[in-house]
Structures are given as structure tokens and as C-alpha cells.
Amino acid sequence: MIPTPRTALATAALLALAAVAQAQTPPAAAASAPGSAASGPAAARPPADPTAPKPFADVIKGAKEQPGLFPIWRKDEKVWIEIPKEAFNKPFLFSVNVANAVGERGLYASQMLGDELAEWRRIGNHVQLIALNTKFRTANPSAKLAIEQAFSPSLIGGLPVASADHPDRKSVLIDASSLLLNDIPGYSTRLEFAYRLPFAPDRANSFIESTRADAQVTTLTSRVHFATPRIPAPPLVPAPVPVPTPPQATPDPRSMFFSFVYSFRALPEVPAAMRHADPRLGHFMESYADFGDDLKANPRVHMIARWRLEKKDPNAALSEPVRPIVYWMDKNIPGKYRAAVKAGIEEWNKAFEKIGFKDAVQAKQQPDDADWDNMDSTHASVRWFTGADVGFAIGPSNRDPRTGEILDADIGMSDVFGRGSRRLASDDVLGLHAHDQAAASNWMGERSLRVLSEQNCTYMADQANELGFALDLLALRDGMDMNGPEAEALAQAVIKDVVMHEVGHTLGLKHNFRSSTTVTQAQLKDKAFTEAHGISNSVMDYNAYNLPLKGEPKASLTNTTLGAYDYWAIEYAYKPIAAEQEAAELAKIAARSTEPQLAYGDDFDQGVGGPYDGFDPRTNQRDLGDDPLAYAKKRLKLSQELWERVQTRQAAVGDDPLRNRRSIFESFRQLGMTANNISKYVGGLYAERVVPGVTTGPAFKPVDNAQQREALRFIASGLLSSDSFKFKPEFLVTQTLDYNEWDRGLPISIPDSVAALQGRVLDRLMSPNTARRLIEQGAYLPEAQRKGAVSLSEVYGTLQGAIFSELKTGAEIDRMRRSLQREYLRRLQAQLNRATNGAAVYADAFSMARWHASQLLNELRTASAKPGLSVETRAHLAETQDMLNSMLKASLVRS
């Protein structure tokens, strides 16, 4: 046999080493007699290297193998992962889920944490698990080296090999515990965020809990103990910023366990066909910068996230898919809710049938005796979990970063569905908090953080909170039995609605917070229409409940089916199109964006904070109908009806002592969201998704002056008026506490709830963003329309006049109004502080605020001189004057 170049080189090297060894043999040893102590094979063998890896067979002696993508060897508590030689430097998908948690403050079970494109790398006898950098790419071979040199990958973990190479398979072992019992998900940071305590993994009390392997995936579950040495003593003096309490849901706050499910999944050998995103529709995306073409102005590439869906019969008008999208329903889902969950999943088949797929989406029930966990990366699932303070659902997914293909999805469903839908309004004392999946550092990598942030969803939390309001009102108005068939039907409808929403996320669809404005007020009152078409043109909106005013006809309370937008978004993502026709056909589909039913606005459009405060009043959470302003007025009337009815409700034996308190707080919470939405009209801009060269018309247009002024009048006369919030003293004094609880709260305070509501209005109307838009909106209007535009002075004057109306009438200023005026002064002080608000673009806002503050000071002086005022009012006026004097006399800080 003619040796290969590599074999020839190895043979030559061995011969050279043998020659060197012979030349260095001492003459005495060479001349030794055959029977001497220095003779024989033992004398010629060099001493063993104590640092050399043990033979493969010695390490796994007595261990049991699980064959798979990366075979697993297990013996007692020892677990090894076998990495074949050909698997090094070959990308795969590495994902992390949390199967068991502590059940509070965002640390919940059955959650997906993220994924990365990863690969094994070997440096001598050291193995690294590397997260590849997918943010910067190129198809140009000559530019690839420059990209690799410019942008670093990240190390997930590294460790020495646990064995020498297998003599035949050329594979090597690594110790799974040394890799996977570390804090790969970054949970020490999440724990610090939740508790402000330094928790860290405790390796001595952590172990590999379970393992599974097949040709497609290798999965290991680590049971990791997190601990902190001590809980610090509380400070002697209260901290200026409230400090979170230590863990409340564990027996010992210093100790807790998490089960992390690590999956190593093979990527598809043939990558899926990618489909480019269009900004007129809302799909999750895999995005990267393509540095292959230096003539392209914008190097960003956006691929939509979607499952691989292909027809079995490409020529059939309606065909089953080669591989359907299967959702496994978790065995923890209560039996009475499984039908509703299944209906919510399979509702999406209506959209896929429109584009030629039969039974594209399937729901399968995990058997109750199943011994496999649907948290691994090959089972899309709907999981049911619980927590001490949880009320949310979420629909994240794992994707192939190369193409955007969705490979796995695990919808998390809180069991508050059951408690919230059936009993929240009558006897449950559950504290609900919106789930912030991206609040703390999510496991690792910018990509995982971005993916989880964009898929963050609080729809169920909001649904559960508002459901308490809806059930309370219906029970008090119509006598609905909380345990009767009507409440049961509503519970099932709510579950189906939320499941449709979350499945939409896992199919690749983002939120659409504008779709609810595409259904008219008349249609919302039409029972036949809402049963056939739903209450919104998308299940991806955060739709409010369709509650009628007293005397109005009843229709569907919640969404019953997919809307026109949902069909459109599925068509764009999944319609089978020949490659040569795809660009033209997708452009044709996207061109329908101007149809009223297909209106679209995402999370940024409705407002996420900072400069992105949401300035289009048509794009909101928890509104309903084509007139958000009319809905806001309706919401206030519904709240006032509930307050009136709650105050006449008779207590019964066995009632929760906090029942009425919770009813009131829930109504204020919903009204607070409405207050934020209605404030968007003032200084608002209508935004349209204009694509240069494709669509025409204005990208931005100021909200009509008449609507801005109508919103301002409603805020002044409704939300800022004490008359809108009437509660009888006889009712308030009867509202008791839960004396069985250590943290039992304080007597109910309506002024505090009203202040929080009104504060949301003031935060928006007195913000720099609103001021800037009001100042600049004239630039968006023709010359003839500028004269009658709503001005910053008009807004500030209207607000100030409504808030301090007593100064002109001479009326007493009650506790609620004094609180509102102080809240106004706090924000006015911030406006007048150029050290914190002093950007040059807000100079006009500063001068206008200062002018109105001076006017207010003069009015206060006049009002203080009026006789007959109570000592409380006189003291408040004196304090207000003093504050304004100090604010106006403060030295200006100039840059």
C-alpha cells in the first residue's frame, strides 16, 4: 500500500524517534546480559505520564451507554459525554430550559431560556463549548477571514478531556458534571436581580438529574443547588429605595434548586429556505449584518422566523404537510381545560388551509404515564405550571440562526387560568405580577436576550387581572353564578383566546397592537358578528373584554377566532412559492397593508419606554374598537358602575375579606392603562409604515386638532376630577384586612389609587417627548393649518387650570385634589431643572413651563388672601407657594 502523505509523515517521525532513542542508549545497558535486572521489556518502557488522559475503556468501564448525537455514558453519579472526532468544529444548536424553579419573582418552572449556535473545539487535551457569533456574516469567501478576525465568539464552558481518544471511534469523553453544573444560564444574576443577594452554584450538592440521547439530540438535565452564605440583617435605618425581601417561597431563603435542561441538537443537514421580512407585517426575525457587499447602504438582513412546512403533494390545492407542526399538550394540564387548549392550538389550521395546507397544526396529548419530558428541544409543547405570584403565559421558540427556521417552541401556561377564570373575582387572593422575561440578564448572549425580549408577553397576566373586573361586574349586574355554566363557558373562552395568542407567537408572529381599532363600535355590539369574526382583527393584540354598558346588547366578551390580519401574516410567512416567483409574490401580499382590516403596530409602536413612548393613539394595549377615545370614556363609566355596585354588595359567610378591595384595585389598574392610552392623543402622531419606492402617503401626521382637544377635555373633566371617584365613607370603614396574614396591608386608600392613576396622565402630558412633538408638529402641517394647531401653551394651561380650578372658584381643596396638585408640582419641578432636563431642543418647553409656573404663583397669592378657607387648604396653599418660589428662584445650570 502506498502511504498517504499524512501516514508517510507519521512513519518518518516514528523512525526518527527510534533512531534518537537508540543513539541515546547507554553502552552498559546495551551490553547487559539477557538475564540481568536491566534487561527485558519493562526496562525499555519509559515511566507513565501521570497527567495523560486515561484510556477510553478504563474510564467507562461498567458504565451504560445511551447512543445518540453525542453518546452519553453513565455509571452511578458519574456522567460523560462522548464527542466524536468529526463533531468538532461542526455547528449545532445548544439550548437551555428551566424545568424546576422556585415559583416566584420571575423564577418559574417550564420556561425556555434561550439558545445559541455552538460548536465543540479542541485545543490539545482541552475541550471548549463555543457560542458562535452570528451577528456578522458574509457569503463572500474572501471576506470571511476578516469577519472571523473582527468579531469574537464566546466561551460557554471549557474543561479537560476525561479520556484518551477511543482507538477505533477516535472520539473523546468529557465529564458532563464539570461542564453542566456551572452557572451557564447566568441565574446568579437573575437571583441577584430578584433578591439583591449573592447566590452562587453549589457544586458539591448539584448533580446530573436525567439524560436522553438519540440521533437528533442529546439532552442532559442538571439539578443545580444555588446558595448564599447568609441573609444580611435588615438596615437600622430604612433604605431610601425599597429593598426586595429574601426568597419567600422556599423553606430556607438561603437555599434553592433549579433543574436546567441542556439540549445539544443537530442542525438540519439541508438548511431551510429563508424568507425576508417586510416591515408592513409583524414577524419575529433572525437579523445580522452582511459585510459581503460594501456598496450596500444598509448591511442589515432580516429573515422571518417560521417552521419548515412543505406539502406532501405540491400539486394539490389542499395537501397535508410532509411534517406537521405538532404541539404536545403537557400532562399537567387539568383535564377540564384540555379541550379549550386543543381548540386554541388547532384554530390556526383555518389560516393554513387558506394557503393549501390540511392539518398543518396538530395538538397531541402527552400521556399521563409518559416517561419523557417535553422540555427537550425536539418536542414543541404547551406546558402548565404554577407559582406563588404568577399569572402569565408566554410563547418563546428556538430557531436555526442560519435561516430563521423554528425548531422548537414551549408555550408556558400559568395555572392562574383555572383560578383566574373561575374564582379570581370571588375568593382567590392571588397576587398577580406581569412577567418580565428579560428583566435580568438572560442566560448568555445578545441574541438570546433579544429573542426572549421580543417574545416577552404579558397577555395572560393582563387577561387574568381584567377578568376579575369583568366577572365582578357581570356577577353584580346580572347575578352570574361563579360556579355556573356561564362562568364555565367564559373560562373556556379565555383559555382558548390566550392559547391562540401564544401559539401565534410560536408560529413566528409578533404582537399587533393596532388591530383592535379595525372593528367598529357597532360591530362590537353585534353578537352574530363577534361570534363569527371575533372582537378584533388579530388574536395577537392585547384585546380588552367586550363589556357592554348597562342596557347595551351583549356580544362575545373575548376573541373567538382568528382575524383578517392573522390570515394575512400566515400567508406571507408560509405560502408555498416557487423560488423564482417569491420576491414578486411576497411584494404582492405585503402590498395589501393599506387595507383597513390589516392595520399593524408592534410593541415599539405602542410604547416601550424612553424615546419610544408610543405616540400613535391607535396602537394600544387593552383597548377595543375603532374609537379609542370613546372606549376610554366607556371604561370610566364601567369602572364607576362597578364601584357603585361593589359598595352595595352584601357580605356573606366565607367571603374573602379582601374581595371588595381587590375589585377596586383591579378596576383602577385597568383604568390606569386606559389613562395612558388616552393621553397619547395629546401631541400624538399617526404613523404609517411607508416603504420607499413602494408605498405612498405620509409616514407621520399629527393627530387631528379636534381629537387632541377632546382627549384633553376628557382628561381634565374626567380623570383629573375628584367627582369621578366617589366612595361612601360607610363603605370604606367596613373594608377589613386579612388578619390571618403577617403582611396584612393597611386600610384602603382611594386617594392613593387615584393619585397613581392621575400620575400616569401627568407623566405623559408633561414629558419631554410630548413637549417636543407639540412644539414640532407645525412642521408636519401645511401653512394654512398651523394657526389652529394645539400648542404646548394650550396643553400646559388646560392642565394647570383643571388641576388648580379651586384657585378661581374659592372652593376648598380636598385630600384627593391636594395630592393631585403635589404630583403636578413634582413634575413641574423636573421640567424646571435644566440639570436633568436641559437638552437644547427642550428650551421652548422649559420657558413655557416657567411662564405657566409664574402665572400659577400669582394665582396662589390671590387665592390665599380669600377668607373662610380651612386651615388644611391655607396650609396647602402656603406650602405650594413656597415650593414654586424656590423652583423659580433656583439658579439655572447652563452647559
UniProtKB/TrEMBL annotation:
Keyword Signal annotated:
yes
List the PROSITE patterns. TAT
Q: Where is the signal peptide?
A: 1-23
Q: Which keywords does this chain's UniProt record carry?
A: Signal
Q: Could you tell me which residue ranges the DUF5118 domain spans?
A: 53-99
Residue span of region Disordered: 30-56
Q: Which SUPFAM superfamilies match?
A: Metalloproteases ('zincins'), catalytic domain
Ranges for domain EcxA zinc-binding come to: 485-808
Question: Bias regions of kind Low complexity — which residues?
Answer: 30-46
Q: Does the keyword Nuclease apply?
A: no
Report domain DUF5117 positions: 111-312
- This chain belongs to the protein called Metallopeptidase
Q: Which organism is it from?
A: Roseateles saccharophilus (Pseudomonas saccharophila)
